[in-house]
Amino acid sequence: xxxxxxxxxxxxxxxxxxxxxxxxxxxxxxxxxxxxxxxxxxxxxxxxxxxxxxxxxxxxxxxxxxxxxxxxxxxxxxxxxxxxxxxxxxxxxxxxxxxxxxxxxxxxxxxxxxxxxxxxxxxxxxxxxxxxxxxxxxxxxx
Length: 142
What we know:
This protein is α+β, with helices and mostly antiparallel strands. It is 42% helix and 23% strand.
């Protein structure tokens, strides 16, 4: 009989799992799974991110690596808010590369035409400096 291999999955749908909502009016906000309804839906609540308590399909959620330990099933907004603040989930999220990438994507999305023009000029000047330094190094080594 083959030995049991450890699971490669680390993020499970569980009560207390912090999730990122990826669809609907709360898209891009963090919430917590308060209760598992069935194989397709969960009850989420995001008291610190203004996500209303609602049932939502799993396909509209992205599981994050953060969990709130010992959160009781069907906990109300008050205990969830206290657990989030105690665990420092929002601070951990803001420091994560994932959140920084989403924020940078939002900045690029909201950039005006003039902002994109300034970025183009900055890239052009940087490229010119790099090219000049490369040519200088190449001449010095030759």
